Amino acid sequence: MSNEKILIVDDEKEMCLLVKSFLDNEQFQTYTAYDATSALELLESVEPDLILLDIMLPDISGVDLCLQIRNKVAAPILFMSCKSEEIDKIIALSVGGDDYITKPFNSGELIARIKAHLRRERRARQAEAERNPVYECRGLEVDETARTVQLDGQPVNVTTKEFDILLTLIRSPKRVFSMDQLFELVWKEESLAGDSRTIMVYISNIRKKIEKEDQKFIYNIRGAGYKFHDEVTVRSR
């Protein structure tokens, strides 16, 4: 089931419900509004991933509503309209709309356009996360770009090497790193006898700063090394 949320704004209730049925069949989470006031209220609580917006609304025009929406969210906006003139399309796109489809439309074309915009948004978010990743796991946040650590919203003071070890582990939560591998990745030099003890001390210090009795992040895999908790997600800064 898709987690993506779509807000449908159209004063024609039958059209709203028809479009909603198309999207429900595709397993999207759908929300409907029949005027601009209701749409703005829903915008605050729903935070949609995409908005379908009729250009003609009873209280204000879809164009004016689009300008207000653009001050709040960056979600793609796909205009739906009976107007097919080129100037209407130009105006709609110039105020922040991302696409324009003329009524009556084919349900297949509508779904295809929606999915194309959502794919583009997912790629953009992924690219942003790769540029400025923040790794999250059960209240722990490791910001790679800012080189900061937070636990339950509170900053954690770590040394440069502690951060580098933590970052190495949380980047690859399913991988088991030997102590020699961790030393070589962090210190950028070949591991020598006794360096494994250095890693053990650093890991112990990191654990004291981020772990509680009932919350473990770093696991000691007997005879193999260390790995991070599996439940890691990545978002952009």
From TrEMBL:
Response regulatory domain: residues covered: 5-118
Higher taxonomy: Bacteria, Bacillati, Bacillota, Clostridia, Peptostreptococcales
Residue span, OmpR/PhoB-type domain: 132-230
Function: May play the central regulatory role in sporulation. It may be an element of the effector pathway responsible for the activation of sporulation genes in response to nutritional stress. Spo0A may act in concert with spo0H (a sigma factor) to control the expression of some genes that are critical to the sporulation process.
Protein name: Stage 0 sporulation protein A homolog
Residues passing through the membrane, by range: none
A GO biological process held by the record: regulation of DNA-templated transcription
One of the record's GO molecular function terms: transcription cis-regulatory region binding
DNA-binding region: 132-230
Residue numbers bearing the 4-aspartylphosphate modification: D54
Cellular component, GO annotation: cytosol; protein-DNA complex
Keywords of this entry: DNA-binding, Phosphoprotein, Transcription, Transcription regulation, Two-component regulatory system
Signal peptide feature range: none
SMART domains to which the protein is assigned, alphabetical: REC (SM00448), Trans_reg_C (SM00862)
Gene3D superfamilies associated with the record: 3.40.50.2300, 6.10.250.690, Winged helix-like DNA-binding domain superfamily/Winged helix DNA-binding domain
A Pfam family: Trans_reg_C
InterPro entries in the cross-refs: CheY-like_superfamily, OmpR/PhoB-type_DNA-bd, Sig_transdc_resp-reg_C-effctor, Sig_transdc_resp-reg_receiver, WalR-like, WH-like_DNA-bd_sf
